[in-house]
Amino acid sequence: MLGFKPFTINLKGNLLQYDKPVVMGIINVTPDSFYCGSRFEEKESVVRCVEEMIAEGVDWIDLGAYSSRPGAEEVPVNEEIDRLAMGMEAIRSVSKNIPVSIDTFRSEVAKTAVTQLNADIINDISGGNLDNRMYETVAALKVPYILMHMRGTPTTMSGMNRYQDVTAEVLAELSEKIERLSLLGINDVIIDPGFGFAKNIEQNYTLLRNLKLFNIFDRPLLVGVSRKSMIYRPLGITPEESLNGTTVINTISLLSGAAILRVHDVKAAVEAVNIVNLTYRT
Question: What's the whole-model pTM score?
Answer without folding.
Answer: 0.94
